[in-house]
Structure formats: C-alpha cells, structure tokens
Amino acid sequence: GGEKAIIRMSTTTSTENSGLLDALLPEFTKDTGIQVKVFAKGTGAAIRDGMDGNVDIIFVHDRAREDKFIEEGYGAYRLAVMHNDFVVVGPKNDPAGIKGANVAEAFKRIANSNALFISRGDDSGTHSKEKEIWGIAGITLAKKNIDADYGGKTPDIGYEYPAVLAERYVSIGQGMGKALTFAEEKQAYTLADRGTYLEYKYGRAQGLDLEILCEGDDNLGNPYGIIPVNPEKYPDIRFEDADRLAKWLVSEKGQKLIADYKIHGRQAFFPDAKK
Amino acid sequence: MDFLFDSLKSAVLLLWSLDRDLLIIVSLSLKVSFFSTLIAGIAGIPLGLAIELNDFRGKRLVITVLNTLLSLPTVVIGLFVYSFISRRGLLGAMGLLYTPKAIIIGQIILILPIITTLTITALSRLDSRYRKTAMTLGANSLQTALVIVREARFGIVAAIIMAFGRVIAEVGISMMLGGNAKGFTRTMTTAMALEFDKGEFTMSVALGILLLLISFSLNIVFNYFQGKTGD
Amino acid sequence: MDFLFDSLKSAVLLLWSLDRDLLIIVSLSLKVSFFSTLIAGIAGIPLGLAIELNDFRGKRLVITVLNTLLSLPTVVIGLFVYSFISRRGLLGAMGLLYTPKAIIIGQIILILPIITTLTITALSRLDSRYRKTAMTLGANSLQTALVIVREARFGIVAAIIMAFGRVIAEVGISMMLGGNAKGFTRTMTTAMALEFDKGEFTMSVALGILLLLISFSLNIVFNYFQGKTGD
Amino acid sequence: MLYEIKDMTRDYDGRRVLDISLSLEEGRVTGILGPNGSGKTTLLEILAFLSRPTSGELLYKDTRVDFDGGDLIGLRKAAVLMQQKPILFTTTVFNNVEFPLKIRNLKMAERERLVNRFLTMVGMEGFSRAKAHKLSGGETQRVAIAQALACLPEVILMDEPTASVDVENSIIIERIIRDINRQNGISVIFTTHDRIQASRLADNIVFIHEGKVSKSINENIFAGALETDLKGKKFCLIRENLKIPVKTEKTGQVRISINPSAVRVFRGTKNIEEMRGIKGRVIQLSDERGFIRAIIDIGVPLTVIMPPDSTGDVIPGIGEDAWVAFSPEMIEVI
Amino acid sequence: MLYEIKDMTRDYDGRRVLDISLSLEEGRVTGILGPNGSGKTTLLEILAFLSRPTSGELLYKDTRVDFDGGDLIGLRKAAVLMQQKPILFTTTVFNNVEFPLKIRNLKMAERERLVNRFLTMVGMEGFSRAKAHKLSGGETQRVAIAQALACLPEVILMDEPTASVDVENSIIIERIIRDINRQNGISVIFTTHDRIQASRLADNIVFIHEGKVSKSINENIFAGALETDLKGKKFCLIRENLKIPVKTEKTGQVRISINPSAVRVFRGTKNIEEMRGIKGRVIQLSDERGFIRAIIDIGVPLTVIMPPDSTGDVIPGIGEDAWVAFSPEMIEVI
Ligand SMILES: Nc1ncnc2c1ncn2[C@@H]1O[C@H](COP(=O)(O)OP(=O)(O)OP(=O)(O)O)[C@@H](O)[C@H]1O
Ligand SMILES: Nc1ncnc2c1ncn2[C@@H]1O[C@H](COP(=O)(O)OP(=O)(O)OP(=O)(O)O)[C@@H](O)[C@H]1O
Ligand SMILES: [Mg+2]
Ligand SMILES: [Mg+2]
After folding, report:
1. For residue E274, pLDDT beyond 80
2. What b/e sequence results for D248-281 when a residue is b if at least 16 CB atoms lie within 10 Å of its CB, and e otherwise?
3. Are residues C149 and C45 in contact, defined by beta-carbon separation less than 8 angstroms?
4. Which residue of C lies nearest to A149 if distances are taken between CA atoms?
5. N or C, which end of chain D is more exposed by having fewer CB within 10 Å?
C-alpha cells in the first residue's frame, strides 16, 4: 500500500561519526523520496548484517572482505565510492623518530624503538590495513589461535601481533576514537583514518595531543565501497531502492557532495567513481 | 572540571532548545523503557509471588538460576534475541530487528530477573501473619496475592524503580537490537554512545545529564505517590 | 538456533581448552567485580543504614536522588571518571586510566546507589521491634546496626548479588576506563563486545555462557552459605 | 459433629508437638486450656485449615478435609481464626474490617453498616479512620475480633482473645462470644490460660498437655528439692519452711504436681500437727460450675477445688487463715 | 527518686496520648494499670529511653535525661524494657539471651553460666538450641524475660509480662519479679490488666486513664440506653431486665460507670424492693490488700469492693445469691 520507501544500511562508524552521511543522505532523500536508516558499527558487524539479510545495503571499507562478501553471493555488486587515507599519528616528540619516513620504514622504526603502539585489534578495515603494513615492513606477525573447533568449521578468532613488539603492542579491540584517546593517554603511536583524527584534533575544545607523523604514502589509501545485498539471497530485500542509493552515490551529484564535504575546513574524503 | 561544567551548560542549552530531533530521542527512550518495565513487571511480580509463596522441589535451584541471570550480559541477550529475529531467525519474517519493539524484547529479558528476584526478596521477609490473616478471612489465591503485594509494596516499588533505571540507562541492547538509527531507534543512551564515539564528550555528558534530570522528575512523582500510600 | 547450539559447544571447548589468555580474562573479570562489589558494599551498606535509621531533613530527597542515580548511564560515569583520571585530569599523575583500578572506580560509582537503595529497602520494612530490642538491651549504635543488618540479611545479600551481577556483566565502564587492552584490562564482557564487533557472534555468546556458568557456580556457593545461616 | 480429629499429628523439625483425637460438637462454645507450648495455636491453625497436619485425619461436618486438592478456600470462608498475636493490614481500621466483606462481594452500603456495627461491638468505633498498624496491643486485638466477626463465619476460632485486652473490654468480648453463639448459632473455639474465664464461657473445656488431650491440667506444679527428714520421711522442699510430703524413689531437683481436688482444707486448727497441715491464707475464691475454686497462699499460691456443699462453715472466708493437708499418695513427682 | 516525670507529654499524629507528672521511687515494684490505649506502652518506652517525649521533662536518678545529645546508651544499659509483644532475634534462644551479656563484654564461661541460669529461671532451659523465632507465644514471652534479666539492669520495665504465659509460669514470673526486687534491689515497673496481680505484686499501683494519672480506674463501665419509667424516674437499661437508676440530663445511648466501693451488698432480702436492689450471684471473691473484691453476676459482672471488717455474716459466700443496691448519685454517666 502506501508504504514509505525506507531502506536500511549498515556502515562503519567512521562514515557516520565523520558527519558525512548527514550531508549526503538528506540530499538523496530529496532527490528520490527514499529514506535511509543507518546502522553504524564495526566493519565486521556491518558485513555480518548484510550476510544475515538484516539490511539492504552495506557501506564499508575493507577491500578483502568486501570481495569475499560478493564472492559468497551475499552482495549484488560493489561500487567504489570514495577513499580517504590513513595517517600514522604519535606523540609530538616522536620518540621513534618516524617523521619523514615512508610508512613501512616508520613501522620498522616503531618496532625497533621503545615506543608503544596501539592497535584497533577489532578486525576493522583500519586493523586490516595495519596488519598489511606490518607485512610490507617485513615484520612477522605471530599468530595465536584459540582452539575452538566446532562442526568442522574453524572460526578465525586467532590473534595476530608483531612478535618483536610483544608487550609494547596494545590491542584494544575498540573503535577509532577510542584508539586515539588510548594512544593520547599512553603517548603512543597508532594508525588512524584522517577523518576521525581531524574530528578529535580540531573538533573539540581540547584537541588531541597527538600529531600526524607519517602521511601520503601509497600504502595508506582507504577505499570505501558500497554493496547492495543480493536479492537472490534475500528476496524481500528492497533491492531497487538500494540500487538507486548505490548509483546515486557514484553519480555526479553524489561525488561532488563528497568532494565538498569538509571536516574543520579540511577535505576528508576523495571521490573514487570513474567516469 | 571545565568539561563537566561545559556539559552542564550544554545540557541546559539542549533542554532549552526543545530541538525536535532531541524530543524524538527522549520520547523514544521513555516509551521503550516504560513498556519494557511495564511488561517485565506484569510478568515478574506474579512470577516472584508464585515462586515465593509455593513450596516445590527445586525452588532453591530456581532462585539460584534467577540470581545467575542477574549477570546476564547485554551482549548475550542482544545476540540471543538477534538469533531469533534476524532475517535468518525463526521470527525473521516479522521484521522486528532494528525496531523499538526489538529493544523492548531484549530489555524485558534483562530486567525480568531483576524484578522477579527483588519481588522474592521483598516477600521473603514479610510477616507470615499477613498471608495467614488474608487466607483465614476467606481470600482466594488472587486476593491473598494482592494483599501480600500491598504489604510488600515498598520492596516491589523499589524493584520497579531499579528495573526502570536499568533500562533507561541501558545501551548495549538498544544498540544491538535497535541499531541506533537516527529518527527511528536512537535512544538517549545510544545517542550518548554515538556522541562519545565521535569524540563529542561534552554533548555525550550533556545528554546524560538530561537523562538524569528526566529520571529525577519521574522519581519525584513516584516518591510523591508512594508517600501518599502511607508508611 | 544452530547458532545457540554452536555457541554452547564453543563455550564448552573454550572451558576445556583452559587457554591461558582466557584464564587471564576470566580472572581479571572476577577480580575487578569482586573488589568493586566489596568496596561498594563496605560503603553502601552503612550508608543505607545511616539514611534509613536516622530522621533528618531532606531524607526523602536523598532517597529520591539515590533512586535517580540508579539510571546513571555508564557513559556518564565513564566520562566523569575519565575527566578526573586522564592525563589532563586532576588525578592524571596517578596513571590510573586504562588500568583495572579505573574500572573498579567506575563500577563502584555504578553500584553504590544499587547497594544503598536496596539496603534502605531491606531495612524499611524490618520490624521496628528488632531495633528497639537491641537498643533496650544496651547495644550501642554499631551493635544495633549489626543486629539490624543480620535481621535484614536476606535483603542485603540480595543487594550484593544484584550489584555483583551488574558489574560482572557490565561492559561500558570496563571498556571506557579499562580500555580493553589485551592481556591487561580485557574482561569477559569487553572481550564479548569485541567479538561481537568483529562479527564473531558465536565466540561472543560462548564467552557469555562461560560468564553465566561462573556466575552460577558463585551463586550456588552463596546460596549454600545463605541456607546455612538459617531461615 | 463440627470437627472430628482422628489420630492427627503435627511435627515441627521432627519434633511431635501435636498428637490428638477429638470431636467437637456444632453450635457450642469450646474452651481449650493448656500450658505454653502444648500445641494450642498449632491445633487452631489446623482447624482453620491454614496449616496441614503431618498425619491423621480431620473431618469438618462429617466430610474429610483434603489439604492437598480440596476446596480449602470454601472451608476457610466457613471458619475464621483470630490469631494469637493478630496483625492488621497497613491501611485504616475501617478497611481492615471491611476486607472480609469485600471478599464476600457485599454491597458498599451493607459493608459500611456491618463494619460500623462490628467496630461498635468491640468498642473501637472511634478508630475507624486510624492507621491500623499503629494501634496499641489491646486495640489491635479488638479490631482483629471485629475483623473475624465480619467474616460471618460458621465457626470462629480465637487464640487467647482477651490476652492483652483491658477488663472492661474483656467483659464485652466474653459477651460477644456468648451472643454470637446463642443468637447466631456460631460455634466458638477459644484458647485461654484463664481457667475461670474458660469455665464461665465454655460449654465444654478441652485440656491439652504436650500435644495430647488430657483429663485435666494439674495446676499446682511446683519445683523443689527432695530431702529426707530425721524420721526418714521424704519431702519436697519448695521454699524455706515449705515442706510437702512425697512418696518417691527419686532424689534431687524435681517438680511435683498436686491434684487440686484432693487437697483437704480446714478452717480450724484441730489435729493439724498430726496431719502435717500447712497454714495459709485464702486470697481468692471463685465459682466454677458449682464447685468452688480457692487460691490459698501457702508461700506459693495453691489451688484447691472444693465441692459445692461445703458452706461457710467449712470453707474459710476470703482473707482468712486456712490449713491445708496433703497425703503423700496424692502428690505426683514429675 | 528513680524517675521524676514532669508535665511530660507525647503526641502521635497530633493526638496527645500521654500527659503525665509522676514520681517513682527506687527499689520498689510499681504496677501500672489502665485500659487499652491509655498510654502504658508509650510511657514505658519513654522510661526505657527508647522514645522521646513531645514535651516536658524526665529525670532519672535526679539527673535530667537529655534525649538529644545525652548518654542514652549508658542510660539504656541501666534500664531494660520487656516489650508488650516481644520479638526475638532470628538465632537460637541461647544467643538471644547471651546478646546483652556479650555487649557487656562478659567472658564466655560467665555468659554461658548466666544464660543457663536465666533460662532455668523462666523454665526454658530445654530450648537453649531452639530457633527463637519459632517459639510459641508464651515461650517467646518467657525467653524475653530471661533476656531482660541478662541485662543485669537497675530498672526492669515489663509491658504485660504474663499476658500470654500459662498459670504455672505466671506464678514463676511473679516470683522472679519479687525476687529480683528483694534480693538484687532491682526496681521493677510493670503493666497489667489484672488488678489482682497488680495488688499481689506491686508496692504501689499507678492508674492511668487517657494518658493521665487517675485516682483509680472505674471498673464497672457498662453501655446502655437511658430511659424513663412510669414514675418519671430515669434509669439506664443495660440488658433486658437490668435497670440501673441514674441522675442525668443526657438521653439516648450512654456508658455508665459505677464506683465499686460505693455499691452496697446484702446477703438477705430485707428492704430490697425499696432500695431498688438487684439480685445477683457471687462468682468470685478475692483479697486486695485487706479489702475484699467481689465479682457479682447481675447479668453483667459487677465488681464490688468491701471493707475488711465485713465478715461472713455480711458478705455472701461464693456461689450464693446476693443483692446489690445503688443510689443514682454514685453512678456517673459518661
Ligand atoms: N514453626 C515452628 N517451628 C518449630 N517449632 C514450632 C513452630 N511453631 C511452634 N513450634 C513449637 O511447637 C510447640 C507448640 O506450639 P504452639 O504455638 O502450638 O503452642 P501453644 O500451645 O499455642 O503455646 P502458647 O500458650 O505459648 O501460645 C512449641 O513448643 C513451639 O516451640
Ligand atoms: N506509632 C503510633 N502512631 C499513632 N498512634 C499511636 C502509635 N502508638 C500508639 N498510638 C496510640 O496511642 C495510644 C496509646 O497507645 P499505647 O500503646 O501506649 O497504649 P497502652 O496503654 O499500652 O494500651 P494496651 O493496653 O492496648 O497495650 C493508643 O490509642 C494508640 O492507638
Ligand atoms: Mg499459642
Ligand atoms: Mg500496651
């Protein structure tokens, strides 16, 4: 009947927390009449929502898992929407002396210093990126598996950490904001997405007491993809409306809005759609 | 300390602004908490009565289990309910997930043990002569139960206040089962969690203070009525 | 439903594995909950006694405020304590943030109102003759208080169980003030929240079941001792 | 028969506190007498269908009472118990007395009329709006009686109904008991420690002792030490100079019991020395169904029951000296 | 003076329930008599320093009691109150009686000895290990007395100490009261509804009525309707055929009070008709400090107090018929 067009989207906290969605979605609703309910959470949980058919579309940043999601038939397709970038932040006095180095070198120096490193440790996109960089830097990750095998499936609940850091590697299993506050408190290094960093540094009365020490490296790209859930898996998904959202985001208007969005006067996201 | 002061100021400003979005959030919080407390009360008080007033095998085990359920983490409740109401679950077709109803279901599970155990506690030390008197005067089971509840009202009201406080301040279940969707399932606590995640600590605490103010007003009303029912 | 079954199986396997990391997490949870309950009990029971047994102006206001504090959200407590103990706070020099002590401080604030109000409730319906008898037999204030606590033990023990259940299942404060650092401040509930965020629901619930099993064993021990103190 | 109690027992924590067979007739006033802990309250609670016997049978109006699945609520509407230490609901006195009427679905106007009537009967009409839980001991007792009357029962069981009631109101309560029995045909079963009250009020008296029906309760129980005098005769020393001759093999501290009907009383002093008489003073005389009950102070108060034909010539007057004599045979050593 | 009570009042919810001035001597046994609700319990709780007067002064051993900042705990150690409906702690009987001794820091062995002694005194030695809160009414009362004795007090206040105690134990408790007073010099203040008990036990008796000390308590209070007979004389109809002549302006339902010392009693029947005598039957006679108290059943139990010099010739014997006569002047209409 006169059902309102509402779709459900699970996304990572970074898109919602940055305020970007508040700038985009009202415009989308104006253009199409479709409202979007947003559920922000960790990347893992957001993808899980898609797999369980709880939402119509997901908007996340973890390339490897996004591909797997499509491969397993949960996603209809993936569109590259935008990227921002990661930065390595740390205390002003930079005890490991990473300033000016490329990111692989920076991680190596951290490993060889006495400094603490804070890891998100929550299987988020940022966490995946961090592990990737340790790899590039040539630092071996020790893996520890919890032996919980059921029904032939071995869940990936192991815990990976750079062996050399040992006690200096603090895995907190929390969101970006918490990781930044933690790093500030301990005056430690961490890998952060630029958007959240800017918010914490310039969005508050007492800005974050950490500086960007390494940025602009090719390895620090952070692409966001949008994936409508596959209607063949869940027939009662609102695929058409989800499809319109995905297409709208990569449209000229959508891309311009993304490019124009600023956090404290600084551009935070860079459109990725290829014309 | 500036921070606390700022928060207080923001809370006042928030309240003053009567912002429509804020009103939606506040009213959702109240509605959800009200219904979950109401339903859990309607179920939990008679359950507590039934357990306390009857002698049956395994009674102590039941009480021990109820006490254990007081430490049921919200994540477990959230996931448990999720497994039923998510699209893949038994009740998936009802489309409950990420609605206020889902929050209410989860919160009922959270506070049912609270209300039940506190009802049992309230009754257990009640003078047994009240029950005997009601019975000898010819009251049937229901009438006897009503007498007992009235005599134990202080403890039962405390159970209700405790349960209400628990749910209105609760964030885990609201987040997991409601999803914190703006305009739909965002409650005061999930909004606070969001502001916190965004690093907007001041706004987060301002919302918290608002919540406490609302709770304080409710408690004043409550206290007034409790005072009227005599000491 | 497979999911719940899988979780149960994983819980058993987890328990069976006696994994060192897991033991650290479990023992931290227990330690933190034990101390916060203990300290809040030591403060809250006498506080409840003092409020209930004395007549003073503003008594009802105090009780209303305590009832209000039952709806103190963990985010507010977390941020409040944070503002004192973070590097920039008054007590920053003590380096408390992200230690188990910080969790304990926050949890004490969380359950102090619970223990206090439930103590008040437990005492309020206690036969006034107990107090009069103790007093006329020559007991001083402390001895009278002990008599009253013993007579109200059922309600006070319920307060303690409720408070313990609250903290062992609590996640917000543990997360914010403990920081969920692996090997240092990761508790059962923060570990559960993490697994949940990762989408590892099975592991999350498995940890929850483990928590309930532990809580159940504690309650059995408790019940045994309570049974021994007579009815 | 109103109640038939057949080999009914009740245990508490493994201790048998009641073990009784008894029939109680309908339409009568029955008084139950017995020392503390003899099981009176326990018995009354079972007769009110509030607690269950451990074994044995209870018949109410010739029907076996089924404590497990029977219509206990219907039975409880027929019998009401006024407890030994009654407690009132924490509302007003009016609401307390109204409660049983409300339960019985009486109309508001009728309820009001009856509540006022019953409150007036027990002299508590002025307390209608008072908080019931703040009343004094005797006031509480009286409101509880009004509440029991408001049940309009077939049987009313009263556990020490006048225990803390003042003299004036005791008389009123006794009159109420008599009136509801005579005029409304309500059967009354009450307990008391006051023998005179029991004989004044009851059509029949049941004595219970250690959970069992007994023929009578020995009133004269005294503690003392067994000694032997110079002549080799055994006696029990109760107080200084108060020696009671006994016949027993026991020694040491004992309690003796003297049957009040077996004591001989003399006004004069003749032959007293030979009879080992003891001098005392008459402090109370009362009428017990034609018999005369006297309390004679011989250092301890001794109860004596004398036949009715003893007139003033034989029975000493009040305040007068009297001599009592026992033979060792009639004194039981417990 | 043990207590001096000066213009002391106590209000509950704005109602004045006590308004009293009184001195009580040390080392004596004082009995307090008064109807339900007259303020006995209220008074005893103040004398035990447990509740505070609304206004006025209380002196204990010539020192003003400061209910605000004074050493109430010290005072409470000197005086102990056995409550009207005593409650025991939910532990064993032994622990209950031991509690005051523990508080007074007595050694374990000494405590054990005293507890056993006091329990034996009240005849509860067999219940040492029993759960105190499960005892019967009279058992509870007796343990409470043992507990009060264990306070080794200067004053012991007892609120209806024998209210639900059996006859045998009432005698024992009365003896305990006398003994602790005579032998240990403990002052005893007790309340009772039993006039005879009071006169048997107390060195002096205080009557209170509606919160005030009164000269005596009128025992003969009856409710009835005022009517006028054919000759125009007013009388009060108490029951069918029971008309008491009165002199009053009132009409309708009233209560009348008859001074027991003013009633004339006759054995014979002469001149009765003229004197408007009423026939009754003597049901109880007792000795009250030399005076004789008789209860005469004239349809209601009428108490009469006669001077000691009346001997058997004037005073009817127990169970005998007697005639009583009143003049309207001595009957008060309330
Ligand atoms: N709930 C209980 N648990 C254990 N023992 C009990 C319980 N109730 C009563 N008793 C015991 O059973 C015995 C009989 O008690 P009951 O109350 O029937 O005596 P009673 O004849 O009414 O005495 P009283 O004249 O003192 O009121 C007592 O010795 C008492 O201690
Ligand atoms: N806490 C209270 N609140 C209100 N009224 C009270 C309170 N306690 C006692 N009263 C009233 O004060 C009056 C005196 O009570 P008190 O208990 O002193 O009487 P009493 O002489 O001991 O009577 P009884 O012989 O019945 O024990 C009574 O009318 C009673 O209703
Ligand atoms: Mg009894
Ligand atoms: Mg009293």
Report:
1. no
2. eeeeeebebbbbbeebebbbeeeeeeeebbbebe
3. yes
4. C10
5. C
Q: Is residue B172 part of a domain?
A: yes
Over residues C53-64, mean pLDDT: 91
Residue E225 parent element (H or E): strand E220-228
DSSP E116: H
Binding-site residues, ligand 1, Cβ < 6 A: D 12-13, 17, 34, 36-42, 84; E 134-139, 164
Number of domains in chain B: 1
List the beta bridge partners of residue C141.
none
Closest C-alpha among D50, D55, D110 to residue D78: D50
Q: Of the candidates D73, D80, D87, which has its C-beta nearest B130's C-beta?
A: D87
C-beta pairs of E225-234 under 8 Å, 24+ apart in sequence: E225/E252, E225/E253, E225/E254, E226/E250, E226/E251, E226/E252, E226/E253, E226/E254, E226/E333, E234/E328
| Residues A161, A141 contacting (CB under 8 angstroms) | yes
Closest atom, ligand 1, to C-alpha of D34: 21
Write down the pTM of the prediction: 0.87
**Residue A87 region by backbone torsions, left for phi larger than 0, else alpha for psi between -120 and 50, else beta:** beta
Architecture of the CATH domain D3-213: 3-Layer(aba) Sandwich (3.40)
- Can you tell me the distance from the alpha carbon of C81 to that of C89, in angstroms, rounded to the nearest whole number? 9
Size (chain C), residues? 231
Question: How many beta carbons lie within 10 A of that of residue A60, not counting itself?
Answer: 27
User: Which of C34, C75, C170 is the best substitution to test chain B (most B C-beta atoms within 10 A)?
Assistant: C75
Number of C-alpha atoms within 13 angstroms, CB side, residue C214? 26
**Residue B155: domain span:** 21-230
List the single residue in E with minimal CA-CA distance to D300.
E171
- Would you call C75 an interface residue with chain B, using a CB distance cutoff of 8 Å? yes
Sheet holding E234-239, edge to edge: E242-245, E234-239, E220-228, E252-258, E331-333
Q: pLDDT per residue over A96-141, tens digit each?
A: 999 989 999 999 999 999 999 999 988 788 888 999 999 999 998 8
CATH class of D220-333: mainly beta
Q: Which of D77, D83, D91 sits opposite B138 (nearest CB)?
A: D77
Q: How far apart are CA D246 and CA D227, in angstroms?
A: 10
Between the CA of B138 and the centroid of ligand 3 the distance, in Å, is 22
pLDDT at E174 over 60: yes
Nearest CA, atom 31, ligand 1: E135
> What is the Cα–Cα distance from D166 to E207, expressed in whole angstroms?
13
